[in-house]
Amino acid sequence: MKLTSKDPVFSRDFFRDEFIKLALLSRDFPYGLAIFDRELRHILVNEHMATISATPVERYTGRTIREVDPGVAVAMEPVLRHAIEKGEQLVDVEVEVPGPLGADTAETGYWLVSCYPLKTDAGNVKGAAAVVRDISGQKSKDTAQEELLKFEAILSDLSAAFINIPISEVDRKIEQGLQKIVDFLGFDRCSIWQFSTDDGRLHCTHSYALPGIKQPAPIVDDVVPVWTSMTLRGEIFRVSDVDELTDEFWREKQYCKDMGGIKSFLFIPLNVGGTVVGLLSFASCHAKKLWPDLLIQRLRLFWDIIGNALERKRADQMIQKALAEIRLLKDRLEAENLYLRDQIDVEYKHEEIVGQSDAIRKVLLKAEQVAHTDSTVLILGETGTGKELVARAIHNMSGRRGRAMIKLNCAALPATLIEAELFGREKGAYTGASTTQIGRFEAANGSTIFLDEIGELPLELQSKLLRVLQEGQFERLGSTKPIEVDVRVIAATNRDLAQAVRQGNFREDLYYRLNVFPIGVPPLRERSEDVPALVWAMVKEFGKVFGKTIERIPKKNMDALRSYHWPGNVRELRNMIERAMILNNGTTLVVELPDTPSTISSQATSLEEMERMHILAVMVRCGWRVRGKHGAAEILRLKPTTLDSKMKKLGIRRNPLTSEIS
Known about the structure:
Blueprint: H1 17-25, E1 32-37, E2 42-45, H2 47-53, H3 57-60, H4 65-68, H5 70-86, E3 90-97, E4 109-119, E5 125-134, H6 136-161, H7 170-185, E6 189-195, E7 202-209, H8 225-232, E8 237-239, H9 250-258, E9 264-272, E10 275-284, H10 293-330, H11 336-347, H12 358-371, E11 377-380, H13 387-396, E12 406-409, H14 415-423, H15 440-443, E13 448-452, H16 459-471, E14 473-475, E15 482-484, E16 488-493, H17 497-502, H18 508-514, E17 517-520, H19 531-546, H20 555-563, H21 569-583, H22 597-603, H23 607-621, H24 632-636, H25 640-650
Parallel strand pairs: 11-16, 11-17, 12-13, 13-16
Antiparallel strand pairs: 1-2, 1-5, 3-4, 4-5, 6-7, 6-10, 8-9, 9-10, 14-15
Helix pairs in contact: 6-7, 6-10, 7-10, 12-13, 19-21
């Protein structure tokens, strides 16, 4: 709108130089600009102002602010009247305005307004000029940032709440944490589900729901099979509108309906040490929810806090169980060495290395060459090849044979317990540590320690092991006092440690320190000529145990044993002989081989896969029973806890929905 001195709104003395400049520059002015008379009629509005308010310039001409937009008038009139009536400027006043006229949304906007009185040369106020900046976008960012900071403050408080908390209070604190998340984020329910180690099914272990919202059933994997399978694959499942689910999820849609009409939900798999142990679920029944990636990242942090608390609780329970077992043994143990020696005598009844093949002769030659030194030895080979027997042979030929060799399986214990087992602990080192306990290195002082499955040693403990190897010193858990020991270390693994070093999962300096004298133990399939001797040695051993006499083994059966691929190596052979001896009632022994050894052999593309296939075969044969008489642990000659650990590591789980192997 072009202004001239003939406009009836103002008198001639109103047009001071400043106002003329303002009018002329309004078109290029980078902010919204509106000029009003004393009655708050629009005299001038630039294009920026029209864009901010989403109202054409023509609509403003000659109309009051209330006539153009009553909602904006409520916010702007107090500022304008102050400038006109008081003759004072107001700078950067934040006002809240409704959504633009005619728009579909009623979302609130925010303007930053500076208002200046327009005066004549005589000082009379004839109107006001308003400079407007739309800060709605920045306001939204600030609000989102504020919400994010509040959420992170909640996570920080939760993390602090679990520090030094008694184990008996963990579950209650977790429930409180779920409630805080539900209340802050506006969900209706939050639940933690975990796969049971007993039946492999998905159990609801912790949950919080708003009043009037149904709590989930304790077990739902039969009801929502697709979700369960997605969780096992580690896939996040987020749905903002249940009605948009495809027919594939008809069971899940029915479940949402039965649970009070869930409109939106989110499932986040819970991962511990690379294994999916359960899921974290969120449900909204009253409104549809969006699940942005940033929110999911923060909810993962929430699980890290809860997961650490649950892991600490589980570790403490294992420690308490271990302490109870030690208390039962204490009265009949004269010393830690006596206990370890007795344990070794019970576990290893057949220590002689049987075989005359060139491959096994080379192993024994290397063992003899290194036995009389104190050099570190690294024994390599597939699972079940007899790496521990080689380690025992080295120890028995060494100058340390007067004391028992101490053993630790690095894969049989969780990371939270391995440090205490290796280096010991002081009383009060952590919750439940009511007594001082010496570690395996102290027990092996002056002797040999055998670290089986060294490739599974947690990265944070590898530096401590390296220090023992280099300096012969370590500290007990909960102590700063160094302890010096004279220990010869023999380690064994079925993993490719060089590859683990390249992948960053194993320290390079520790690898070179262990790999001083490597000995590779050949798999049984590469020394098939030793199979007959091994079979007869085992038959003789089990004959004494079961009170049976075997006079012959059919040649056809022995040839089949020699031709079999033996993915489980000597351990598998031993288990088969033991089973055959149990079932046999005569003097002729027939050893039953698996139905499809060729299939297993062709599928086993790695050491780890061969071990997995062997454990699967034994589990199927035992009806998936791990513990007890004729259970898988007994057949495999493993501790049940060790077998559980291996099954988790190898991803062996029975599918409860189809009874198939997964």
